[in-house]
Amino acid sequence: MPKKNHSGDGTAAPLPVPPIDTWWWLSHKGTTTSFLCISLFALLIRSAVSMFPYSGAGTPPKFGDFEAQRHWMEITTNLPAIDWYRNGTNNDLTYWGLDYPPLTAYQSYIHGLLLRFFNPDSVSLFSSRGHESYIGKLLMRWTVLSSDALIFFPAALFFVLVYHRNRAKSQVAWHIAIILLNPCLILIDHGHFQYNCISLGLTVGAIAAVLCGSEVLTCVFFTLALSHKQMSAYFAPAFFSHLLGKCLRRKNPILSLLKLGIAVIVTFVIVWWPYLHSVDDFLMVLSRLAPFERGIYEDYVANFWCTTSILIKWKKLFTTPSLKFMSLAATVLASLPSMVHQIFSPSNEGFLYGLLNSSMAFYLFSFQVHEKSILMPFLAATLLALKIPDHFNHLTYYALFSMFPLLCRDNLLLPYLTLHLLFTLIYHSQLPKTKASSFSFTNFPGYVFLLRTHFVISLVLHVVYLTIQPPQKYPFLFDALIMILCFSYFVMFAIYTNYTQWNFSSHFRSADKEKKQI
Question: How does this protein sit in the membrane (predicted)?
Fold first, then answer.
């Protein structure tokens, strides 16, 4: 029998009323209902953003990423698979040649069939270049929306179900909203126009498979992610080191590694089969995936090479082969601490931090990084939002700000501001209470002042970028200032997350410790 609450005079007193919770209704209905409701809202937001311009809208002769994706549909639906990556009369690789792995090509083929069924002119060979009809744009936007709903959303649900087994339902609902209303991903996929939701969805599926102990499924999902976008390699050190560390702790490590290797090879062979009949065909595809001739960076991106190029002219001082080696060495060195940690002490929590640290290392130091590449470390940080809420809030701000010039060029200022505001409302609707880390930058004198100064400068740069013309001698001055500001924060964030990974409490290490298999 439940115990009654009595007042001092012996009469029954009213039970205390629980405080009003922004997420009460959703959490009361359970994880599945929360996910469905938030998903519908997330799809509505994506649809609203898709009504704004896209990359290269109305700017011939090459337009932008929207035209690139449409052109790949044109090529894949009109030419045999073996010619998709080969330069020829019907496939001029200088005009948005396909430069992603085969799974992207298959995706383009499937979407191209849809466009050809409803609007044949949008994918007809040659004559469809620069096609921007209303129905064509509507169908293109729908392909991204459906890809998001069919791949990224289920993967997010898979992750939430396996990661939040014993957490308050209100915090689970909050985390679902943070993942599905990721402002960076929405702006790039549904504004700028790309299909990052597919590779990121497959990556999230692979992460969830790790957390539930299905390592073969992990290998299948992550190989598919790599076969869709080569930037998924940003996460490869974390997957490799974590799975290796787990296998080495077992009674038969060679057998465990062999099983995972077979899963990777079989998946790879199935996806790449059309290009495995000859070495030349395989190398032809690989050459398209690594465009080293473009240089170590393009445009203004908040990574090490671009930021330091203000003082050190890397492209003039070093040859491309030298820069390839230097960037590889720097990336490996930056990834090494988190990899070593997971090889010798694998844990689910450490794995999530490893994903964040390896992807940030790639973003900061690897060859040919784009502004949009911040999506990789930002995804990993999103999965850790409940562990590092304050730092995640700051990272979201600077990740968005690092793409601000790109989004302004695409005329996406209003969605940028709106999604930023929406994220702020969601973030502050229920701040998760987490145990303070033993290490925090707030313990360092002057850090809070530095962070506030960064923020004020960023606000000024927002206004300056929109209202003042840069000097003719330095047309990209404001872009460079934004890059420097964001880079400085990313470095501080990377130091913090690497240190945190190496300083888990013994509670987390013992909770995830895997027993020796008999």
Answer: Multi-pass membrane protein
CA pair distance 242, 343, nearest whole angstrom: 6
Q: At 178, which amino acid appears?
A: I
Sequence-ordered strand ranges (E) for 377-509: none
Q: Dihedral sign, CA of 312, 317, 319, 321?
A: negative
Q: Which range has the worst mean pLDDT, 60-64, 135-139, 274-278, 501-505? A: 501-505
What burial letters (b/e) apply to 479-510, b meaning 16+ CB within 10 Å?
bbbbbbbbbebbebbbebbbebbeebeeeeee
| The pair of three-digit structure tokens given for residue 186, joined into one six-digit string | 């929405």
Do 397 and 20 form a contact (C-beta atoms < 8 A)? Answer: no
What is the Cα–Cα distance from 92 to 291, expressed in whole angstroms? Answer: 16
Read off the DSSP letter of residue 211. Answer: H
**C-alpha span between 90 and 83 (Å, rounded):** 9
- Take residue 85 and report the two structure tokens written for it: 């990556």
The tens digit of pLDDT for each residue in 248-267 reads 999 999 999 999 999 999 99
pLDDT tens for residues 253-304?
999 999 999 999 999 999 999 999 999 999 999 999 987 878 888 788 999 9
Maximum distance among all Cα pairs of the chain, rounded to whole angstroms: 94
Yes or no: say if 461 and 478 are a contact pair by the CB < 8 Å rule: yes
For residue 273 the two structure tokens come to 């089969």
Give SS3 for 508: helix
The yes-or-no verdict on residue 330 having pLDDT over 50 is yes
The predicted structure's pLDDT at residue 441: 62
What distances in angstroms separate CA 353 from CA 192, 433, 458, 491, one per listed residue? Answer: 29, 19, 27, 15
Answer yes or no: are the C-beta atoms of 124 and 173 closer than 8 Å. no
Tokens of 420: 């930023």
369 pairs with which residues across the strands? 297
HSE (side-chain half, CA atoms, 13 Å) at 349: 19
Q: What is the pLDDT of residue 14?
A: 46
C-alpha closest to that of 241 among 96, 340, 311, 106: 340
Q: What is the average pLDDT value for the chain, to the nearest integer?
A: 90
Q: Name the amino acid, one letter, at 441.
A: F
